[in-house]
Amino acid sequence: DVRLLESGGGLVQPGDSLRLSCTASGFTFSRSDMSWVRQAPGKGLEWVSAISGDGRNIYYADSVRGRFTFSRDNSKNTLFLQMNSLRAEDTAVYYCAKDPGGYSDYWGQGTLVTVSS
Amino acid sequence: DIQMTQSPSTLSASVGDRVTITCRASQTINNYLAWYQQKPGKAPKLLIYKASSLESGVPSRFSGSESGTEFTLSISGLQPDDFATYYCQQYWRYPRTFGQGTKVEIK
């Protein structure tokens, strides 16, 4: 079975950094494009970033470009989202997802990031 | 960026009803559209991809269609498990964008 497990969320202050991880199993990770999607409390879904299977192609939403860095370690079946200069508006549940063709067919359970002073 | 305009934002329906949710893209997306269902506190679940392809394991009462830049998710014979929020998403161009969501409530 495909499993995605996010970790690393928590409460941080504005301007702080945080690194999220997503550990994958049950599929050929290195061949799979992956993405991060977030959801602010009570709001809709917002696409954050996507990465190709080999890690060479990475795309970002304008709202996070220059502050967030998406990377992967295919030897450990793990994704990373390095989030710097965090803002209150980055408060959300962050989901990692598997993208077989641009859409997301499997999602993790999410990890909550709260940015507040 | 491609804007996805989803309507209605809320829909009240009864078990057994046929419901339709619409998503309009601001430009052509060549049917690169997905539909997701989300229940409170849970991750989204893929229902439809490529506008009308049913994801494996999803009941056949769910269907998707398209007409140009307008896309429709239909649920025929609404079941108690279908009361949830539904989102469309285009994946033709980056940044990928979602519709605002449609909450299907019990009438």
In summary, what is this structure?
With 117 residues, chain A is mainly beta. Chain A has no helices and eleven strands. In chain A, the strands form two sheets. In chain A, strands 2, 4, 5, 6, 9, 10 and 11 form a seven-stranded mixed beta sheet that branches. Chain A has a four-stranded antiparallel beta sheet with strand order 1-3-8-7, with no helix packed on it.
Number of strands of chain B: 11
Distance between the termini of chain A: 40 Å
Low-confidence stretches of chain A: none
Total helical segments of chain B: 0
Shape label of chain A: globular
**Largest beta-sheet details of chain B:** 7 strands, mixed
What's the assembly state of these chains? heterodimer
Biggest interface and residues each: A-B, 22 and 24 residues
Query: Structural class from helices and strands of chain A?
Result: mainly beta
Give the C-alpha Rg of chain A: 13 Å
Summing up helix and strand content along with how strands pair, one would put the structural category of chain B as mainly beta
SSE order of chain A, as H and E?
Answer: EEEEEEEEEEE
Helix content of chain B: under 10%
Please trace the helix and strand order of chain B, writing H or E for each element.
EEEEEEEEEEE
